[in-house]
Amino acid sequence: VTKRVIGLMWLGLALSGLSAATADERAAMKRPNILFMHVDQMHWEAMSAYGNPHVKTPGMDRIAAEGCSFRASYATMPQCVPARTSWYTGRMSCETGAPTNGDFCRPDIPDLGQWLTKRGDYNAVYAGKWHVNGRDVAKSFDLIYGKPLGKGEYIDGAVARACMGFLENYTEHKPFFLNAGFLNPHDCCYTGGARGGQGKFRLAKEISDQLPPLPENWEPPAKKGKFISEWSETDWRFYIYTYYRWVEMVDAEIACLYDALRSSRFADNTVVIFTADHGDGAGFHGNISKGYMEEEAWRVPMIIVDPAGVTKGKQDVEHLSIGVDITATICDYAQVPMMPKMTIAKSLKPLVEGKQIDWRDYIVGESFHGQQVAVRDQQHKTILYLNPKMQAKVFDLKADPLEMKNLVDTSEGRAVMANHKSRLLEFLDTVELYEPPGKKKKRTHELYLNYYNKLREEAKR
Amino acid sequence: MKRREFIRTTALAAAALAAILDLPLLAAETQQETQTSKWGISQNPYVEPCAIEPITGYLPTFSPVSGVPMTGAFSARYSMVAWLTAAEKSRNATMGSLEVTFSKGRCQTVEKRDGKGPQSPGYTTRTAVQFAGENNTAEQWTFESQVDGRKDTKFIEEGVWDGKTMRVRAQSFSRQYATANPLIHRWALLPLLASGSIKTTPLVFDMLDDSALRSNQTLRYEGKIKVPVKGGTASLDSYVQTGQGIVPTHYLVDEKGQVQLITMGTVNWALTGR
Predict the structure, then answer these.
(1) Which residues of B are less than 8 Å from A167 in CB distance?
(2) Measured between beta carbons, which residues in chain B are less than 8 angstroms from residue A210?
(3) What is the pTM of this model?
């Protein structure tokens, strides 16, 4: 009898194991694949789908036509490392340990590769630019193609085709979380010559009929001595011309990958997320590059294609979103718990599905590279500088989308700034400021710790 | 005379002297590198022509290759000349290679992009294009791609162009794109450049670049330019290509009809063998 009971127990255990495995398998089958495509340094409006007449982006246009564009999307910080660290950890820049490009992600927080692998049984796969300092991408993901050279012209074709090859050959039952880290239009950072000459700028006069006009809010660069301060109008227009060509260059690769996915067997069960880590000056306000909080640098394109979604082709200008929302959205689609302490992040999935939900009414962005912090609500933006000698800026984005009129000295501006400072204090109560262990803090960490502590002390008075 | 004017004047004088004596300009240039230019990087007396700007760190080592015209059946080897970051001393380095072989109506290429350690492996593509007509328009092609050492990234596409639409099919996916102009593969331009036909009439086309489409390209002749190379100066015909999805691309062709140098931006090509 004893033997029979033991035998039945073993049989029961085996059957329960079998049924559990089947349930897991069923759950895995229900989870969608996720393709996260990101580009580097793309201006939020450098897309023909959004009405920009100076650039042709048929690939991104198709993504916009089939997805939901969140037009009021922003980087957590408009610089590569901080923005990317936020994507992959779900935490704001003052929390991750990486407030500038020179800093490292703290080791005690998980990243999306680890999280989706452990919590969702995903196959987490990576190709291209990573740039989360201090976190070995090959330990968190199956790295199918790294970055031999930090140039989009060199790697972007290989990134697209490594991912296309992955789609061609993938036979596992697990869902995949495929990351395509494109580099362009970041090559706009290399417009001079290889030995310090003027690059191809002298071609400008020969193609002057093709050069876009200067943006309406262009102004001579404020910083004298910066080499762009000596650019002629033609030089500026040539920079903008080539910038848009770099956007088109990566667009052609994005088109290859996206179209391959959409015609593949994975089309009906793969969510696509497309965004940029930060923008580029592209001549707006007389700027190139990033690291500051005006729209051209802070704001980013953000599109989600959910094959089951009902918002195809929608342009959502109402909901303010920030880089960490991508993390929350990916966790939501993957049906895994949010990662620890993602106190700011909100999933965009319900909005993609056309649901009405409570949403935030402001966002906070930081740039410790540019030593500034910004608060944006539906109508206004305030840019506060860590250096007390710098005058704050307040813009009415509805009346003045190009941020040409600083309202800081008006009664409206003062009221907005007071409101935004209180919002910033709310934000500080929500996040967990990262203090590196040990006595010596890096200057970049001290920057935000000192500034935010000062704000709190001022508020108490 | 202000210091900056003095530097500029002496730099120009040195460059002029070097040109008169047919000395390598780069020797003069190297001496000026520490001076600040209006671009905030370093003084470079030979900013003209712009066609060679992305490879000025490589040219002192480059000798034009002698050989037969790139028309009919021929083969050629190119080195990929990458433009490195400003922190690098030479700012150029070879980071890949290309072999092209042409026979009647057919172009085959093998392109390798170098890796950098186990996490960043190399990448290889192979193309075979069947083309026809006076502008070498693509008829059909195969394209193979793989990250070195990763079989799970390998795929092969077959493509056709019917004069209006480019259709591409792999084993598990397919793509198609409408074209507005004749479709020409990037490397099928070489014989057209060698023939000199574009000298008189600019070429308007859509470009097949690996498996990507780059629309509305114009390739036109710019004129003859002098290029400082190892041990002297080469006189080359300069053609410039502009269009969607590319940065202005220069093709420098010698009098025998060989495309010696191709400059784009951060990726460029130099002929190294026939």
Answers:
(1) 172-173
(2) 242
(3) 0.90
